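> example.struct
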């Protein structure tokens, strides 16, 4: 181990120190576990092909006045000596990332740029933060940001150490492909992912991409063939696309109902199919389910707005309630 003669009277910045607007509490220290069984604790500040650089706090020199600024030394540790790393926790940062909106794009981008070099280093949080940044780019609705998101998700796929982040990056890339106008390529990849994936989250995202493609094709078919019911060649294709879109949209709700956002998103997609085909009663029924089962989602808010705008005849209809009442009122087989 080699100690560089680099002294500082200023508190060192941690690998995990948040960008302006995110750093309000100091993150935990990073710990390097060595092959010798020793641990080295400090703040990781960088690395190269041969070594890691760790900033360590020094003991106050004899006679130092109380309250004097701390001093630090930077230590280089050969990478071959390091068994694994535990990066310091930062609960305040993680909370802010969970709650981040596109309005915080600049701050999250700065944090990602700070952590990007560590993407392939085992246990680093770089991939997770990159995924948040990519999601915010897509949510911004800016086409230029969608292109940046696509490149970002590709990078995470290629370099991340974390299998979970890899799967999430695949999902993000599919969404980015659609957002950048590469829907056809996204659909082809989604078909393959749906075929081979054992990860429910990846399967859900792939199916949603396929649902959107079937939905789009259905709308185009009916717009091009307004009298489709009279065309024996269009009828079967209309029914195929209609059923395929509904089945794929409803898949997470039916089989992964505890996955709140994907299930709610799928319900709203299916309600959209019913709205487009003029089946308002079915659209209203799904919207009621959405509001009741997933009330905290943005899709529930959209569903409630749709319900509020319906004519009274549909507001008063409740197919499930009517069915329950019929079952309650029907006499049992042995009753006279």
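> example.seq
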């Amino acid at each position: 181990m080699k100690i560089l003669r680099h002294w500082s009277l200023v508190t060192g910045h941690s690998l995990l120190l948040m960008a302006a607007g995110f750093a309000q509490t100091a993150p935990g220290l990073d710990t390097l576990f060595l092959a010798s069984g020793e641990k080295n604790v400090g703040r990781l500040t960088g690395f190269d092909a041969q070594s890691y650089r760790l900033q360590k706090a020094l003991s106050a020199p004899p006679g130092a006045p109380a309250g004097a600024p701390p001093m630090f030394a930077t230590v280089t540790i050969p990478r071959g000596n390091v068994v694994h790393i535990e990066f310091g926790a930062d609960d305040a940062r993680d909370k802010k990332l969970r709650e981040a909106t596109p309005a915080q794009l600049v701050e999250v981008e700065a944090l990602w740029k700070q952590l990007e070099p560590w993407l392939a280093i085992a246990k680093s949080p770089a991939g997770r933060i990159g995924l948040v940044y990519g999601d915010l780019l897509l949510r911004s609705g800016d086409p230029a940001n969608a292109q940046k998101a696509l490149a970002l998700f590709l990078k995470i796929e290629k370099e991340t150490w974390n299998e979970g982040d890899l799967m999430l990056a695949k999902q993000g890339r599919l969404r980015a492909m659609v957002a950048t106008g590469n829907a056809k390529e996204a659909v082809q990849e989604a078909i393959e992912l749906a075929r081979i994936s054992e990860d429910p989250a990846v399967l859900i995202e792939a199916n949603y991409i396929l649902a959107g493609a079937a939905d789009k094709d259905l709308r185009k078919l009916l717009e091009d063939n307004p009298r489709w019911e009279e065309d024996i060649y269009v009828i079967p294709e209309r029914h195929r696309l209609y059923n395929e879109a509904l089945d794929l949209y409803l898949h997470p709700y039916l089989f992964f109902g505890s996955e709140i956002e994907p299930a709610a998103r799928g319900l709203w997609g299916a309600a959209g199919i019913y709205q487009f085909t003029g089946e308002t009663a079915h659209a209203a029924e799904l919207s009621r389910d959405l509001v009741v089962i997933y009330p905290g989602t943005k899709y529930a808010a959209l569903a409630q707005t749709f319900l509020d705008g319906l004519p009274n005849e549909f507001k008063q209809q409740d197919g499930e309630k009517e069915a329950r009442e019929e079952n309650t009122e029907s006499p049992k087989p042995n009753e006279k």
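> remarks
The beta strands are 2-8, 30-34, 39-47, 51-57, 72-78, 82-86.
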